[in-house]
Amino acid sequence: MPARDPLERIRRICLALPETTERPSHGAPTFFVRAKKTFVMYHDDHHGDGRLAIWCAAPPGVQQELVDEEPDRFFRPPYVGHRGWLGVRLDRRPDWDEITRIVHEAYRCVAPRKLVAELDGATGT
Questions:
Q1: CB 63, CB 76: distance < 8 Å
Q2: Domains plus CATH for the chain?
Q3: Counting C-beta atoms within 10 Å of the first and last residue's C-beta, which end of the chain has fewer, N or C?
């Protein structure tokens, strides 16, 4: 049975990826590839912004495209938005299949090729 708690769902998605770990960073649950490279951060009301969201790495151009198309669901997060990271609201009835694809794409943005190949072999993509 899938977890109902958004953090638990994000945790399951992220930690299922090859060589990922979780630890707090800047007060937020954060997910790393090989304990070094951040690919997802979970924020609940970050500095009073009222959002339950993830911030994640994204391929070039994706942030702007999604923010322009659906600004009620996607946003440019502070601190990392200038690097193309994407903010994804989890308090807007998220499509968890879509969230999984976004997290996998974030992983692909920072993981070494060997781990991406491992993921692609496991997912059949």
A1: yes
A2: 6-114 (3.90.1150.30)
A3: N
Counting beta carbons within 10 angstroms of the beta carbon of residue 27, is it exposed (0 to 12), middle (13 to 18) or buried (19 or more)? exposed
Q: What's the pLDDT score for residue 124? A: 63
Nearest to 103 by CA among 13, 11, 26, 12: 13
pLDDT of residue 3: 56
Longest dimension (CA), the chain: 41
State how far Cα 67 lies from the chain centre. Answer: 15
Question: For residue 101, which phi and psi values (nearest 5 degrees)?
Answer: -60, -40
The mean pLDDT of 25-29, rounded to a whole number, is 94
Residues 21, 53, 106: CA angle, nearest 5 degrees: 50
Query: Which residue intervals of the chain are DSSP H helices?
Result: 6-15, 62-69, 96-110, 113-123
Q: Give pLDDT tens digits for 65-101.
A: 999 999 999 999 999 999 999 999 999 889 999 999 9
Number of neighbouring beta carbons within 10 Å of residue 31:
26
Radius of gyration of the chain, Cα coordinates, nearest whole angstrom: 14
55/106 Cα distance (integer angstroms)? 10
